[in-house]
From TrEMBL:
Family: Belongs to the amidase family.
Molecular function GO labels: catalytic activity
Protein name per UniProt: Amidase
Domain Amidase: 38-464
Source organism of this protein record: Bradyrhizobium cajani
InterPro entries, A to Z: Amidase, Amidase_dom, AS_sf
Coiled coil: none
Chain segments carrying region Disordered: 150-170
């Protein structure tokens, strides 16, 4: 992987323990090289430095994290059994409920809301021994693809704080990119895990719809039939381990899938025999030239790994944004605040109010007709996966733009929708409920990360992990660190 100028750039890694992967942290515990308290102290220091520069943290949970780390340190020293993620720091997006901790969700309407129950994913992580360090930033109710909100302000990118982190899981991705712990939990309704992961140069996975339950504590405030919960990590192995823990059936979530627990193998292997379909534009999307160039190089890497790479996409309707996604997503957003009045919404962002208004203006017929078109789009993917084993696209059509903007309205001379048109590859996957991941595949001419999206058939996350692990081995990305990390977070905090 190159730095955008064609040079191979592998800067020195930060020395803080919060920058280690989950597998490295657990290996260190087995060697008795350091303790959970050491890891949590370093992680909190990284979070504080990153928050000052990037505004990634909503609610610190540092004292609780230190207390839990001390308890686990005692247990490990006593040789008592611990869980599969014992002592590993994790952050939680502020749309996901943690009992007793405010859940603003980026909305002024939630300023006094404190959930009484953990989301299912949080319960699973706590049971595994993971240590929750903080809640991370999101946009208002997750409605857009940046993490700026009237509650927390603008979240910035650790590669360049003048650029956006992306969103809506922007604080989650920025924290992982900046070495603030190896695992973050995000949500994704139209690309909200994959967009910030692409912009921040980390790995992000949106599992099959329903594989990770959202109840009882998390009922999506928007995108109810579109929203997935999943991990953001620096390595493929960490994402696979996290998914093993958070996936599972929960009767309280009507979308939850009754599937048995599974192990996910993230070991790199040859891709010989894997048929990979390729679409650079879904037949209608504008794309930045730097993204197109990095995507072409990524295809060559997949070919060198043994994959059978062929130009073959789903053949989607060019009107899918206006006639399928918006009637569904905007109506579901409006329904989430159906009891709110104009006065209630007065403190919300103007763009958010516009989305709610648009959603209220769609009729029930509009919503049902969009559902029929959604079914046709899903069927296009069904037919595609009869021909190929996986699909790859660019993750986002652009790289991170100026912080504070909602998006871009022009790509390579073509006009696009400023809200969603610059991320044309993410939300069609939500409409279909498919699993998809983004992994770093290069940098633009300004040194900003570029992502490669891998899409697999329903419940075939193992296919994604196999392809991603092979790419990771061929082009390691975890050795690349933002300048913010090298400037602010290095400094010998590691112990042992």
């Amino acid at each position: 992987m190159t730095d955008g100028s064609g040079r191979t750039a592998v800067p020195p890694a930060p020395t803080g323990l919060g920058a280690l992967s989950a597998t490295e942290i657990m290996a260190g515990y087995r060697r008795k090289a350091f303790t959970p308290r050491d890891v949590v102290d370093d992680t909190i220091a990284a979070l504080e430095a990153t928050n000052e520069a990037c505004n990634a943290v909503v609610t610190p949970m540092y004292e609780q994290a230190r207390a839990e780390a001390d308890r686990l340190t005692r247990d490990m020293r006593a040789g008592e059994a611990t869980g599969p993620l014992a002592g590993v720091p994790v952050t939680i997006k502020d749309l996901v409920f943690v009992a007793g901790v405010p859940a603003y969700g980026g909305s002024p309407m939630n300023r006094s809301f404190v959930p009484e129950a953990d989301a299912a994913v949080v319960s699973a992580l706590k049971a595994s021994g993971a240590i929750i360090t903080c809640k991370t930033t999101t946009c208002e109710s997750g409605y857009k693809l940046t993490a700026d909100s009237p509650v927390t302000g603008t979240t910035r990118n650790p590669w360049n704080p003048g650029r956006t982190s992306g969103g809506s899981s922007g604080g989650a991705a920025a924290g992982v990119a900046a070495g603030c712990g190896p695992i973050a939990i995000g949500t994704d309704g139209v690309g909200s895990i994959r967009v910030p992961s692409s912009f921040c140069g980390v790995f992000g996975l949106k599992p099959t719809f329903g594989l990770v339950p959202r109840s009882p504590g998390f009922s999506p405030p928007s995108w109810a039939s579109l929203a997935h919960t999943g991990p953001i990590t620096r390595t493929v192995a960490d994402a696979a381990l996290t998914l093993e823990i958070i996936a599972g059936y929960d009767l309280r979530d009507p979308a939850s899938l009754p599937v048995a627990p599974r192990r996910f193998d993230a070991n790199a292997a040859s891709l010989t025999g894997i048929r990979i379909g390729v679409s650079v534009d879904f037949g209608y999307a504008a794309i930045n030239p730097d993204v197109r160039a990095a995507f072409g190089k990524a295809l060559a890497i997949l070919d060198a790994c043994g994959a059978q790479v062929t130009m073959d996409g789903p053949g989607l309707d060019p009107g899918i944004l206006e006639h399928t996604l918006k009637p569904i997503a905007f109506t579901e957003q409006a329904a989430a605040v159906a009891t709110k009045t104009t006065a209630d919404l007065a403190s919300s962002e103007a763009d958010y109010r516009d989305v709610v208004t648009a959603g209220r203006n769609y009729s029930g017929t509009d919503y049902i007709e969009a559902g029929y078109r959604r079914g046709r789009a899903r069927n296009a993917f069904v037919k595609l996966f009869e021909r190929v084993d996986a699909l790859v696209t660019p993750t986002v059509a652009v790289t991170a733009f100026e912080a504070g903007r909602i998006g871009v309205d022009t790509i390579d001379g073509s006009k696009v929708d400023p809200h969603l048109g610059w991320s044309p590859f993410t939300w069609p996957i939500n409409l279909a409920g498919l699993p998809a991941a983004t992994l770093p595949c290069g940098f633009d001419r300004d040194g900003m990360p570029i992502g490669l999206q891998i899409v697999a058939p329903w419940l075939d996350e193992p296919r994604i992990f196999r392809i991603a692990a092979a790419f990771e081995q061929a082009q390691p990305w975890a050795t690349f660190w933002p300048s913010l990390v090298l400037r602010e977070l290095s400094g010998g905090r590691a112990k042992g």
